[in-house]
Amino acid sequence: MPAILAAQTAPQEVRVSSRPYAAPSPYALRIETRLVDVGVVVRDAQGRAVPGLKQGDFQVLDDGKERAITSFVVDAARARGKAVAAEKAAVEKGTAAPESSTARASNAARPPRFVVLFFDDANTNAGDLMHAQVAARRFVKEALNPGDRVAIQTSSSAQTLEFTADVAAMVETIGRLRPHQRVPDSGLTACPRVTPYQAYLIAVRFDGSALFAAVDETYACADQDPPPHVSSRPTQIDPVTQTVKGQADQTWERVRIVSESTLDAVDAAVESLAKMPGTRMLVLVSSGFLAGTMERHQEGVVDRALRAGVVINALDAKGLYSEAPARPYGEAPTMTMTKMPVSTFVFETSSLGDRLSELAAPMATFAASTGGLFFHNNNDLDLAFRQIGVEPDVTYHLGFSPEDVAADGKYHKLKVRLAVANPGVVQARPGYFAPERAAAPARKAPAEETRAKLDRAVMSEEILKGFPAAVSVKAGPPVSVMANVDVTQLRFLEQGGRRVQRLTFVAALLDAQGNLAAAKEGTMELALTDATFARLSLTGLNAGLTLDAPPGAYRLREVIQEGVDGRITTTTQPVQIPAPR
Fold it and tell me: What pLDDT is attached to residue 120?
């Protein structure tokens, strides 16, 4: 929101801020209705969604107790979308009748889908990231549904893209991704080579074999044989042992900081998704990272994802990983294989499986805990994005009424299984939260009710005239919206000899189905002197917002709310965003 007013006033007279606007989701789970909705996707051994299942094919366990399924809905939205697209193509070729109104209504009724493609560029090497970029670009160009909104975020925050339907912007942002590894895979020094995982074992788990291997390698780096007592068991007073432990502590501390930062970035992505009105998915793309000792941090991310209805799917960018019993190609040579100590060789080969499991553990935890999928040990990253990023062809919605659940806000574990054997995967949310209090809804605070009125006005078509305001629009792109408010028609509070008021502006572009294509919110905190108020009484107060959306026809909804009495003024007008020349 440009600080148009700020140029005309002293800094202490106005504070201007803006942020993306997100209406509260109409699809949020509300346990107060005493009905828990569980979306279930059943996949076969090839990862394809299984159609044709009936209510009797499912069983739902709530903390181990089987619940009676009281509602059953089959959502084949994506399959319908494919059929409609095929029918539309046939109509264009003149080989079929136009799309039916029923099909159009079916697709219009679908909630919008918001997807965050999260690239862990702080822990993913250049080769893995490049392969993931190729697959991700193909995914956004070929696999998204109309109405899908995609945001791109990274653990380093180097490249980001707000939610958009602009495929060209997605492709361009994905193409600019680069690795920002803070700790090399080989560790901080070439010789001895103490990797992040080995440092974790030494510093956190006090693993003797990991320490023994690093101490022996330190002596080999100096072309020396370890003393007999060190070779049999490293001692605390041995100076080389102390040096190795110091190097391990330093390496692990850096790794820990990067991992904590990565978890914070995932948490922020979940928070951004939670504000979106529709179905929400986060696709985490990473080569893996160490998160031992950070279980509480991970639990916090999972808890917020569950409360917001965010499903986290994960993709291991390493693919089908194999490692030869030697140092990786491209690392700075420190020793020949003949000089590598036996203990070092044995440790590196025997710990490979555990290292890969430890790196993948956070991704597996996020997916399993939020009802998502973890795609790993496979080089077909195109298939990975199709499985974890594409909306399933068929989703089954099972509902049950937990009448005996106490209103204590506790988390209840869910398990959905098939009544008959299934060789594939049953994908469902892992649990739900009980209500915090009795079924009677609490009375909203005045500020909450004021905000609720604003949100309702944005999505409504009703014209409100709480106070005079004029709105002008420039189609762009981007779309530029300018509002002029008559301040003489506003009631101000008197504080410290100034006139105090708060104005909230929301500009929203809605598509033909009524979905938000783009929206921004701006606020002005006013503390005007008499002289400034007199000047603005003649010119009006100007506020501008800009919106980015793909070319097309939209309905622009401008909502302005004043903070003293909560009055609202709205305007609605058509906007046609032209295609770039």
Answer: 96
List the domain range (segments joined by +) for residue 329.
113-183+253-381
State the CATH number of the domain containing residue 307.
3.40.50.410
- What is residue 492's three-state secondary structure? coil
The answer on 123 and 47 residing in a single domain is no
Residues 6+ apart with CB under 8 A from 92: none
301 and 160 inside one domain: yes
**Is the distance from CB of 67 to CB of 35 less than 8 angstroms?**
no
CA neighbor of 574 nearest in space, from 478, 475, 506, 454 = 475
Q: Which residues, at least 6 apart from 216, have a Cβ–Cβ distance to it below 8 Å?
A: 226, 231, 341, 343, 344
Same domain, 92 and 120: no
* 268 domain residue, yes or no: yes
Spans of the chain below 70 pLDDT:
1-12, 23-34, 77-111, 228-237, 322-338, 423, 436-448, 581
Condensed to tens digits (0 to 9), the pLDDT of residues 225-253 reads: 777 655 445 455 678 889 999 999 999 99
510 strand-pairing partners: 516, 555
Which pair of structure tokens corresponds to residue 56?
Answer: 């009797």
- CATH code (residue 457): 2.60.40.10
Do 264 and 152 lie in one domain? The reply is yes
Our count of domains for the chain comes to 3
For the entire predicted model, the pTM comes to: 0.61
* Residue 1 maps to a domain: no
- Is the same domain home to 96 and 147? no
Sole residue written with tokens 């539309």: 88
Q: What share of the chain is helix, strand, coil (3-state, %, to 5)?
A: 35, 25, 40
- Residue of 511, 499, 490, 501 whose CA lies nearest to 569: 490
Q: What is the predicted pLDDT for the residue at 429?
A: 77
Q: Are strands 58-62 and 411-418 parallel, antiparallel or unpaired?
A: antiparallel
Residue 1: closest CA among 322, 482, 372: 482
Whether 267 and 372 map to the same domain: the answer is: yes
In this structure, what DSSP letter does residue 478 have?
S
Q: What is the rounded CA–CA span in Å between residue 165 and residue 548?
A: 10
Residue 64 resides in a domain: yes
- Bin 297: left if φ > 0, else alpha if -120 < ψ < 50, else beta: alpha
167, part of any domain: yes
Could you tell me the two tokens for 43? 């996949």
End residue of a domain, out of 433, 464, 495: 433
Largest CA distance in the chain: 92
